[in-house]
Input
Amino acid sequence: MFHNSLQLLERLPDAHVLATGDVMLDRFVYGEAARLSPEAPVPVVEVRRKTWTPGGLGNVVMNLHALGTHALAAGVVGADAKADALRNLLGGALSEGSPGFMTDPERPTTVKTRVIAGIQQVVRFDEESTRAVSPSVAAAFLEGTAKAFPRAGALSVSDYGKGLLTPAVLSFLLAKAIEHGIPSVVDPKGPDYERYRGATLVTPNRAELSLALGRDLTRAPEDGLAEGGRELMRRHGLENLLITRSEDGMTLLLSCGETLHLPTRARAVFDVSGAGDTVVAAMAAAMATGASIPEGAALASLAAGVVVGKVGTATASPEEIREWTAHAELSASAQA
Output
């Protein structure tokens, strides 16, 4: 499996992925917490530095760029300085001909701020609007996105529930992917998976799967997760499902009935925020080269293992994946 993933890395620079969905800014405030506030039982974080990185769809784009894959991105932002900052951060990662980000003057650009003391996230606060975009903004988004399909080898959809991906918009995107004969990978949100009918692959985490089924599977064993995933697939006619399990790896459920459990490839787990974006990016990039879903999942497992070993929203480069693969092969040999 490792050998196949390394061969796949060589093909990624020839791939083009149309990445769509909810884009945002991730703001990280780093510091140290050595005492509690006298005002409330909360830590006082002495700020050492602050960073801004693209999040959501933006993080998928950055991961595609880090993998060497061409990213064609389409999203919606507000008419504000945060949107300008986001465009500047993503500028070098977007391929020529990318639809880019349409402006909705009636909503802010989504910003998630995480405060991290040492390596521990202590609080997150969000600035956002989750109402549906206006019909005119949705129409402009779809018009621009439609023009990019002929260049794409795969479609990725990042649904964070921020109001862009209405049922009508999702239906259009997934139908276009089918029309152009390219696979689609959806990172889902919320309990309604009927919205994702027609996608090639949907990638819920354990909490998202639990919400969709209406029962808690966050601590279920592998077999229990697989059973729940199959139930969700039957309910909504989903083709394939990849359940991400943070430090426990991933479970892949294929339309042919096969189930694959992929263990985590991380040396250490420091921060899982954004790892789902890495999985979506790696899966879409792999499938854009013509790789099978299991081949893409193997690559995604390695890429996610790299990023969860970092603090903050992160990416995995081919060099990092190769280095980690060599480490994993050495560890496997030592245990044999």
User: Anything to note?
Assistant: The first helix runs from residue 2 to 11. Residues 2-23+56-107+131-335 form a domain with the UDP-N-acetylmuramoyl-L-alanine:D-glutamate ligase fold (CATH 3.40.1190.20). The first strand starts at residue 16 and ends at 21. The two ends are 16 Å apart (CA to CA).
